Every structure is written in structure tokens, then in C-alpha cells.
Amino acid sequence: MGASRLAQTNALFRKNLVIQRRAGKTNCCVILFPLLLFSVIGGLQIAINIELSRGLASGTGSAVDCRCSSGATVDANATGGLDCPPQCPLPRAPKWPPVLQIPRPDRRAVRDGDLFPSAGDLPDASCRAAGARAASFLVTGSNRSFVASMMDNMLPVHNSSVNLSSDISALADYVLVSVLDFSYSFFGFGVSSFLQNTCSPNQTLSFAYQSGNRTETVDVQCTQGLMLWRDSSWLINDELYRGYYQGNNKNKTNEIAAAYDFLSSDHSNFNVFISYNSTKKFDAYEGGITLAFNQEGAWQAPRLVQVPRLINMASNAYLHLRASTLKMSFDFVKEMPKAAQNMRPFDISSLIGQLPYVWTMELLFPVILTNIVYEKQEKLRIMMKMHGLGDLSYWTISYCYFFLLSLLYVMSFTLFGSVLGLRFFRLNDYSLQFVYYSAYMNLQISFAFLMATCFSSVRTATDYEIYSVYLAYHASVTGYFYIIGSGLLGELLFRSYVEDVFLSRSWITLLELFPAFSLYRIIYEFAQSALLGDYMNSSGMKWIDLSDPKNGMRSVLTIMILEWFLFLLLAFYLDHFGSFQNGIRKAALLFHSHVDKNRFQATQQTIQLQEFKASIDNEKTDVIQERETVEHILQESNNSCSVICDNLRKVYRGTDGNAKRVAVRGLSLSIPRGQCFGVLGPNGAGKTTLINMLTGFTKPTSGTAYIEGLDIQFEMNKIYAGIGVCPQHDLLWETLTGREHLMFYGRLKNLRGVSLTQAIEKSLKSVRLFAGGVADKLVGKYSGGMKRRLSVAISLIGDPKVVYMDEPSSGLDPASRKDLWNAVKSAKQDRAIILTTHSMEEAEALCDRIGIIANGSLQCIGNSKELKAKYGGSYVLTVTTVTGEAAEEEMRRLVQSISPAMNRVYSISGTQKFEMPKQEVRISQVFQAMEHAKSRMAVLAWGLADTTLEDVFIRVARESDSASSSPLA
């Protein structure tokens, strides 16, 4: 009786615990990998912060120079300027006129057939060369006539040059602009010109401003502002995007200054949507402009509050329509007084992007995938299953191990990132990070189980070892390609979709069905929250933020949980059935067998009898008798046979245009308890295929077999509890000892305590692995013969009722082979043993009955004496005389007189070999004739031998080859 599920789980857990303890260094390296990555990131951040601190302390860098445009250091009694860095004190903030930011002249929008194919109202490209550099504003709204009136009043009209040095308050009537570029900014607050609907030739504006203790006069030129109508906000958005400044590629630079959408505004209702560019940045100190850090950590000029001026332009235009005397004056802007501030530490963790974190989190995927594929391709999984390990126990322990490894990895990922000061981890809620990372790790494990089913191909014994190693390597490489490829796709493709506000969120959700994109979305949202929280003094992402549909975190969690269970179900299904078709086919068979089992069996027998009729007609008498015996046994309710094969047939489908190959042809066989049955046959005869079908390695194409009354087609899981298997190849764990192997398989056979210890010692002694501490050495250090003996010991532990041994003595020395034979002879009491071998000596020593298989068919069956008597049928006489034709011819005539049907096999240098049919010869007659011949001729030596089992094997194989002109398809 097999072990319970709890006992199976305990056995597998103990075995895996030993293996993982010995692989402790590898596991620690995997778990501590985030420490290496974050140490590099943290060290880089510390180095940058140290360099910035040195710059602050020395005051030599332009970014930390606390001098304003006047050149005086800002202190308690000095007046600062808007161009002072944010680290410097500003006890008395000055007033400055509001300034509007527009593109620099060589980047302003002009007509361009590629960028603006339908925008014919933009200035001609030749205007740039002529120096006419108008700034374009796009305007739309639902009430075009109203909007047209607004466009006419957006910019003030002045016909001549003006000097406001005596009345600076009138400066509010002018729209001052800055291009945010050092080539065109000459003043502390960056004023380069002023905007009007139309400009007179050489029209200027002069005004004075206070700089420290000095008063300076500024002259700026007029710049034309074009208000251009567009039919929809969609067209405006398209032109803004097309003209957006793209680095140094001037061919793609055609910038719009700003855009207005007046929506449903009319004379009684005023609402407006304004688009503007806030991404302009500086990267140097030049011309008296002092730079500061922006939120992203890049250098830029101080913000000059362009949004209020844009609103003021629209508000004044609206007020002018309501009453021409109404005006909203926007005189000055002023900073808040402030004390000196320490510069915010540079946060590299949120700026390096999502890719390093995504790759780090996915690192366990190839580790998990390789482990699963290795056990499957080395057939260790099926070996455990054949000794009684259930699927539920295997899945439970394997999943728990991978989940524990993933849990430690997540803790390492979060802990080391926090300890090393990375704000990506510190600002976001730890419990939220743990839940999302754990959910993804569970999804990753189930995805690895599902992907492992793609590496489940089985190859023949000849290329088994090479192919297994190849597949394990291939699975590892595939895993790492998945990591790299999915990460790059997330960074280059998925991120742009997430940031595209015009893309439907349904498409984002669809893409997140791919597990790697779900992870990328998680990392992306955590990084954005950390970056925003760092510069806005907020606390990053919290649980309450999940209610915000914009971040999509709730939908990602839902997707991961649903896919987690779905992938597990699919992986379990494919692991159990191999494919969707096999599962459906097996379900149909189970349905038919439960609905009408007798009718189903009768139908199967009819099909089999029709299919194998031609083959049965050609069978030998002993094979026909065996088939009749099987049919008689199947009709009995009680029988003593442990193994019954009923018309077993296996056909492999042809590939690459080749015909299908029949490996086993309608084999019927019965093996009672207490008998060792030997299966002989040349290579490729079907011996291993027969064993594979009986042990569940492969499914029969038709027919079935009964093991202790259980059908291999439907009850294989129950059969596994009562069988032992010694496979053709040694399926062992290199990192376990021989004793640990037997302990694991003994527990699977429901042995425990003292009985388990005694069974292990008995097995080790029976195969000579007990003395000298051999049992406690790692199997990886065993010789081939020692591994073979251990495989035999594993097959016999736990008192199985049926034992399969596929060439058990291959690779053994004579002494070890003798001990193995003794172990098998003592073990066959009360159990059936099926043994395949190429050794005729082994077959005669161990097997009570022998069946010879050739071309997939059973050619003959019986004990050794019966086979030699039936298929040998001749004596072999070897005689050596003096060399000479006369002597040889005389000896030939003598033998012919004894056996007229004799056949001379060969004659070389006086030695002749004759085959004589047994029915024509008496042994006494041969002795008398040879004694008489010695007196008449020079007989140097002679010998008489009976037919050996090897002779029988060769003869049967040759007859089978000559009879099979073509395979049965």
C-alpha cells in the first residue's frame, strides 16, 4: 500500500531540504543579488551628493554662487533677484514684471509641408532668414465669432516706440517675453522683447529696473504675435506635438508659443483651456544669468510665472469685450522671502528608470524554469511518480520552495534598497510594495510552471542524456532572453503607451495581461510616486492611492491574481495530459468507460482483433498459446498473475515526411507472482517501449495491461504505489547520497522508523554499497557500476509487488554482477520481475521464463531449456585433424554416416565444424564413431556441444528479419 499524501509530502520536503542545503551558496548568491545592484546605485548616488556638497562648500560652481545680477552677495541687507539660486537666502524679494516664455526665433513655427501639411496661415519659412520671427498662438472654441473678437484683443496695440523709464507702472500694459536662451537673454529676468499684433519698423520699448543699488535701462524690440484659428482642439494638439522641440534636430523644430481653447465661452460665460511648454531648461552659466535646479535635477533659469500672463491676456480680452474700459492689470510678480536652504540630495534611484528594477525582479524566472525543466527532462519527476509520489504532493512542495525563495528575494530587494537609502523604496508604503511584489512573484512561479510544459518532449534512449542537458540549457537561455526582451519592450513600447493620455486605458489593460508588462507598470507607478513624493514632500504611494484609476494599480493587481490561478490550472492540465487534445481524449475515454465499460471493452477488443489478424496468423505455436492463456485469464475473476498484457501496441507518428513506426505489435503476455520474466531482443526491438508503457512513461496506442488487476490506461496512479523500477539510465540526484536516495523512496513506499532503517541497510548490503562508507557518499562521486547497483536497490525497496528492471547489470564487473543476481533471485519471492537484458548468461541465471522480441512482436516464449530444445534443434561437432584434403574428406564422410542431414559450417586448416539435427543423432553413437576414427586417422581434438541460448536468440532474430519484409503500419 502506498504512502498517504502527507507522508509523500514529508518525504519530498525532506529530500528537497537536503538538496537545497547543499546548494546553499548558490541560493544565497541569488537572494543577495539585489544587494550588489543597489550597492552600485547607492554608491553612485553618494558620490554625486559628495561632489555637490563640495561645490556648495567652495562656492566656486555657478550653480551655487549666491551672487545676484548686480554681482553682490545676497545677505540680510541686500536685495536679491529672481536669478539667485534656491540655496541662497532671499530676505527681501524684489518685484519683477511678469514675463511670457516663447520659442527662440530660429525654432518658431513656419509653414512646413511635412510637419504642418494643412497650416497655410503660418509664416513662410523665408521669414526666418529675413529676420521676421513671429510667435504663433493657436486658438479654437465652439463659438467662432466670439473667439475671433477675443483674438483681436489678446495682444495690446502700440504704434510707436515707448520709453517708460519715468513711469514703470505702465509696463503692465505690455506683454514682455523671454526666449529662455542665453543667446537672446541679456537681463537678470531674461526679457528679450514684447509682443503685439503688429510691429512698426524698429519699434522698441525702454524701461528701467533696479539691480542692487543701481538703476539700469533696458531697450527691447517688438515681436509680432500671431493668433491663428484652428477648427478643433484635436488639430491644435496635433500641431503642438508635431512642432515640439526635439533636441538638436532642427529639421523637426517648429514650435508653437502657446494655445487657447475657449470651449463654450460666449459673452455671458468665460472658460478657457491653455496649453503651454514648461520644459525649457538651461545647462550653463552665461551672461550674468544664475542657474538653479528644477524638479528633475536639471539646470534651468528661475521660473518667471508665464501661466498667469497667458491667463491675463485672455482675461483682458474678455473684459474688453464686456466693456472697453475694463482692464485687469498684472503689474509685478514677487518671490516669497526665504532663508538659505540646503540643496536637496540627488536621488538617482527614481531617475535611472524602471528597467534595472524590472530586470532584477524577473531574475528568478530562469532559475525556476531551469529547475522544473531539469527534473522533467532528467526523468526524475516520472521516476518519483513511478514510486508512488502523487502530483498534488509534488506541486505543493515545489511551489512552496519556489515561493519561499521568491519571498526571500522580495525581502532582499526591498530591504537592501531601503537600507542603502534609495527613495524608490523608502517613500512608497512597504506593505503595499510587499503585496504587489509577492503577487507578481506568485504569478511568475505559475508562469514558469506553464512555460515548462513547452520543454516536455521525450527523445529516444540513444540521445537521451545529450538532449536532456541541451533542454535544461535551452530553458535557461530562453528564460534570460525573456527577461531581456520583455524589459526592453516595456521600456521602449509599453511605457510610451502608459504615458499617452489619448490612448484608451482598455488597450493598456490588454497589454498588462503579459506578466512582464504588469511588473513594468508596478515599477513605473512606484517610481513616479517616489519621484513626485521626493520633490513635493509627499509620502509616495499609499493604499489610499489605489482608488485613483489613473495609476491603474488596482487593475494590475486584479490581473495578476486572476492570471496566477489561470496559469496554475493550465500548467496542471498540460502537465497531467501533455496537450489539450490528450486531455479531451482521456476525458472521453473515462466517460465511455464509466457509462458502458463492458461495451467499451468489447469494442476495443473487436478493433484490436481486426487490426492484428494478419500478425496473429504468423505467430508461432508458443506465442499463440500465450495469447490464449491471456484471454482465458482475463475471463477469470481471480487469478495469480501480477502482470497481464492484452494486445499492447505502440505506434510512433512519422515526422518530416517519414512513415509511422510500429514499436510494439499486439503483444499479449502473462506473468504470475514469484516469476522473473526475461525480455530479450536486439536493439530497437521494442523492449524499452514495452517497459515504458507498463511504467507509464508512454501511453499505448491500443490495447492495455493489468498490473495487480489495475488497468494502466485508467489507474496508473494507483499502480505506482505497488511497483519498483530500475530504468535503463540511472535517474539519480547527484547531490544526494545513496542512503538518502533509499530513505526518500522508502518513505514513498510508506516505510518509517525502524522498518525504514532496516530496509535501507538490507538493500545496501544486498548490492554491496554498505561497507566503507559508500552509502554516505554523494552519488555524483559514484562510479557507473555503483550507480547501477543503487538503481536496483531503489527498485526493490518497500516490498513492491511488481519490479521492472531494464538491463540492470549493464556496466557491472563480474563480482558485482554475481551479487546483483543473488539479490534479484532472493527478491523474486512473492513478486513478479520483468527484466530486459542483452546477456544470455544473465537470462539463464535469473529468468524463469524468457520471451524474445524482434520487430516489435513476441517471437517465442518459454524457459531456457524449452527454447533451446525447440529452436536450437542440433548438436555442434567440432573436429581437428591433420591438414590435408584426404583427411578432411574422410572425416566429412564419417560425420555424414552418423547424420545424413548434417551441415558443415566451416573448414579451416584441418578444423571442421558440423551441425547435426538432434532427431538423427544419439550422443553415444557420436562417441563410438569418434573413438573408432582415432584408430584409423590422426584426430588431434574433437568436441560435441549442445545449442546455446545465444544461438537460439540469433536464429530467432534472423528468421524475424527475413519474415518482415515491411513494417506493419
UniProtKB/TrEMBL annotation:
**Matching CDD domains:** ABC_subfamily_A
Q: Which GO terms describe its cellular component?
A: membrane
The major lineage groups are: Eukaryota, Viridiplantae, Streptophyta, Embryophyta, Tracheophyta
Q: How does it sit in the membrane?
A: Multi-pass membrane protein
PANTHER family, alphabetically?
A: ABC TRANSPORTER DOMAIN-CONTAINING PROTEIN, ATP-BINDING CASSETTE TRANSPORTER SUBFAMILY A ABCA
Compartments reported by the entry: Membrane
Any GO molecular function: ABC-type transporter activity
Q: Which InterPro entries does this entry report, sorted A to Z?
A: AAA+_ATPase (IPR003593), ABC_transporter-like_ATP-bd (IPR003439), ABC_transporter-like_CS (IPR017871), ABCA (IPR026082), P-loop_NTPase (IPR027417)
Pfam families referenced in this protein's UniProt entry, alphabetically? ABC_tran, ABCA12_C
Q: Could you tell me the superkingdom of the organism this chain comes from?
A: Eukaryota
Q: Where are the transmembrane segments?
A: 29-48, 357-374, 394-422, 434-458, 470-494, 556-574
ABC transporter domain residues = 643-880
Q: Which family does it belong to?
A: Belongs to the ABC transporter superfamily. ABCA family. CPR flippase (TC 3.A.1.211) subfamily.
Q: What is this protein called?
A: ABC transporter domain-containing protein
Keywords, in A-Z order: ATP-binding, Membrane, Nucleotide-binding, Transmembrane, Transmembrane helix, Transport
Q: What is its main location?
A: membrane
